[in-house]
Amino acid sequence: MDVISRYEGDVLIISLSGEMDHHNLMDIKLKTDPLIIEYRPKLLLLDLSKVPFCDSSGIAAVIGRYKLARSLGAQTVLHGLTPQVRKVLSLGGVLGLVKEVVKK
Amino acid sequence: MKNKMNLSFLSRSSNEGFARVAVAGFLMQLDPALDELSEIKTVVSEAVTNAIVHGYRDCIGTVYISASWDAKETVTITVRDKGCGIEDIARARRPLYTSCTTGERAGMGFTIMESFSDSLKVYSIPNKGTKVVIRRKLRRK
Description:
The complex is a heterodimer.
Chain A: E1 2-8, E2 11-17, H1 22-39, E3 43-50, H2 56-71, E4 75-79, H3 83-91, H4 94-97, E5 99-101
Parallel strand pairs in A: 2-3, 3-4, 4-5
Antiparallel strand pairs in A: 1-2
Chain B: E1 3-10, H1 15-27, H2 34-55, E2 62-69, E3 74-81, H3 89-93, H4 109-115, E4 119-125, E5 129-137
Antiparallel strand pairs in B: 1-2, 2-3, 3-5, 4-5
Helix pairs in contact in B: 1-2, 2-4
């Protein structure tokens, strides 16, 4: 899983590139949590436009980052969901907790 | 026309992607719709992950997959392990339930498998293993 981040005006944008499955889950956690803790943004934007696939581990990946950000006082939003990823995250109730935004 | 394939591999997480792509590649002969293929890949991913994470939680074992279709293009996928088995299948299938206390698991694997298939059967014997049988009728394009 490739992770690229950008911090601008209290917003931390984390772009993931790869499949959000069990195999990549720990890698996602290890690469993103230190960024959230270091920057302590007001808004965390997870850009998933380069995530072509996710299963229930993807639900865990998003919920885990959402919980960490919330514990540090940050809101989380999602961007760039592919139809498959949106379907799985929606089924997992994620989109009731974390909003999807169209613009970055 | 009927067809069938069998596949087995070690329960390493790096094989999760391989398993779903292998099944999807086999099913491409039926020319499925993209969203159907995505859902079937998701189901395979969940079942294989369960075998790796739960079935073989303390060891490396072999995961067995068979995929087939009948004359009416109903696809049957079986994912089997010889791992620790499930003591309470009804509880394991409950949304948000997970037996994993150490990692980040959503407990949504069976819910997703049920949503993306027409039927899902789970057979398990503690200390012998688990077999998950998923059926899905492909719609005509």
